[in-house]
Amino acid sequence: MDWTCLIVDMNGRGDDLAQAFHERVSPIHLPLDMAFVDVNDAIVALTAQQVVALIVRAEAMTPDLQKLLDSFRRIVGPFAEFQAIINEMPDPLFMNQVYEYGIEKFVAGTEWIQELTPFVEEVHKILSDETSIQAKVWKLNKSVLSGDHVKISAAEKDVEEEAAYDYLAAYSKGFALQATGRLGEAEEAFRTANKFNKMFRLAATGLGETLILNGKNDEALAVLQRLEKTNPDHVERCAQIAVAYVEKGDIVKAKEYAEKIAQNAPEHSKVNELKAHILLREGKVNDAFQMLDQLSDVGPQLAARLNELGIKLSQAGKGKSALALYNKAHKIVTPELRYKISLNAALACHRLGDFALGLKYLQRCAKEFGGLNPKIAKIKQALEQGLLQAKKAQPQKSAS
Amino acid sequence: MTQNIAKGLVKHVVILCIDKKDRALAIQQVLEKAGFKVIQSQGIYNTLRQVAQDMPHLLIADSILADGTVATLFDRLKQDPIANVTPILVLIQKNTREHLAPLAGRKFGGFLLGELSAKSLLAKVHEITANFEDVSPYFTPIDALSQNGDCNLNVLGTLVGVSNDQIVSRSFVQLDPSAVLICNPIHKNLGPVSIKMPSNVVVGNEIFNLFPKHLARGKGRDWIETLPPINLQSSGSSPARRRMIFYEPNVDRVKQFAQILSGYEIEVLPVDSLTQLATAITSHGPTVGCIYLHELPTTNTAWRDAWKKIPEANRPVLVIGTTSTNLRSTPDTRYLKKPFGLPLFLDTINGCFERAPEISKALTEGRDTAKIDVTFQAPARLVGIDETGGVIQLKFPLTAGCQFRVDHPVVQDIIGQESSLTAGASVRADDRPDVWFTKFEMIGAGVSKLKHYEKAKKVINNLALQPTKAAS
Question: Could you tell me if B215 lies within 8 Å of chain A, comparing CB atoms?
């Protein structure tokens, strides 16, 4: 499949850009397919096509742009060489905000076509070399998105050598390890990435996020708040800090940050995610449960909380409530986190004695994981045994 | 020729064979103003000797000369196996049979008839030089030799340690901030590292190249971590001054920059007018690490006077935003091509906080330093060879005077493996912002142009007879 470079106009006055694209870009042969699209199509294209590069005309950070850049970061990678913003004189705050996504390159509107050829040639050259760090990281990111843990582990092994000396490879390794639940190793990988490139904020953000998952909330707060000084209004980081306070039990501080996010970016998906997280911590389970439908792409911290709650409900004999929770949670978490929910749902079914349903959940779990791991295999055996016994018991019941 | 080389790369040499001195002088002035190197010569035989010695790119001669006509000059020049490529522009003062007769049956580079104007002269001269793609008529493109031009550019240096986040290297050259280089240690146990964004500090005869450590990537990243810190504190110097004067008329932008920079522990002293800038430099200049100007002021110079008054040892580096691609950074003035991204801005500013005298003093005292000999390498393409050297293509400009080597067999056959080349002008390609051409010289001291070219020509002729060979 051919690789694509997207050109997106966020300013909503794309006529001149479109005209320049059709008159001066379309006729020339470039090593990447060039597509001029609007922001919604860009997000669709990112998931559906082999998009590898992004050029955006934008003046300021908007929720749409943030969503686009975040998608590019997750789907392709935080590659400085693969992204550029068309803007004659970017506001310093805008420069600061897009740097959160690894964007370093700005180009003037009068020069972007001249800069285009070397830009796409460079992207093509880097990705054509399968041994390049960017090519391996891209492959790893795609495996994380698939949620298939077998694929993730294979791609993660592929960057192992590079992760010992390269910040980007180390960061991506951390990202993959976090997705597969190997949190101790993820923490180390993020520390390495952060050591090699202190300017690369995503590594510090990843470290902070993993420290929270590892229960090291104070250290997480130190890392995240140091980073906060460089960009105090960054929504995702504020949300991470709030989560660290939630986990620490300092709900007052958590709410302060939640309020700040709600004011700065009321439409941001993190606003409700954070609210749900706080409600859960406060024990307001029903209120939190009602909010779940409004969430999407929920990250590992809230997912961990939801799993924890589901297990508690199941253990307390409220298996059906647990399953309802798992069903909702499964819809809203990122793909790599789904298998764990399916696994817990299967366990809840085992406790309920609904072995057939449990096997269905387990089948989904194995598909999401990318195969059977020892834990899945063990639960499968237990469910199959339970089902067999239930079937044996069935005729006796009918006979009696 | 298969490659378009950027105009303005080669300084053309013109010999004037004009009897009337006043006229010759007037023409010389016009041509020199337009960037040509001009040599005056009188008489046919002197001119022929001069041509053999200076190998001009153009000969401008009157049709009627004191000791003959331009026809004799043409015929004799055509007999010279080397200089026969020199085009001749004939100045015909009168439209008479006597003045026109020497032109018959000869293929001159061009003619100018009657009264001469600066405009018509320059137009004609540019037209003739364009005939040989604006390089030298002696230029042989590498493609014409069925050779692959790919090669590596090598610059020698010695890594001496790390100062804050900057890898410090001693070398003999200033490196352009846009350079991306592979740092190859001579020691085989140490792996290569990709480094970029060099800044240069010069102390006396010493040149230090500083590279942001966090931008170093590659297998050798581990040994970079083991480079010793250069202990600036114990040299009695003050700690790096993370303060800067920030000139930008848009107050909102200054505020935003100040907020961001405070996150990186950089204190900003904002000014929004050139008058304020001059005052701030006078009051705070010696205690700040750098001065940022959103663009180079063209009118007011008071700020520059104030800056120049600061003793050199304490003079802060100027960081100037520009939309021009022609301005070259120097150790005390660094240009930032606008629009720029935040990391480039921060790395440039951070590089300025490293104080050259302090580094130099610490190194002279020999404290905490390493001595790792390295070759800074970059992919290059040899475009062709001319009478003094040749032209290479790179992804960044070389600073004029920079000494370097290239590992291309053609160059090595001409001057040997260990000999250095000297960079001349660098010009960006018209159609590619990432392609630069650099004219280089390879003539050794005391060697005549002709002797050098004869040797080069021998190599070229030998290669032209051989089948295609890839560069090593």
Answer: yes
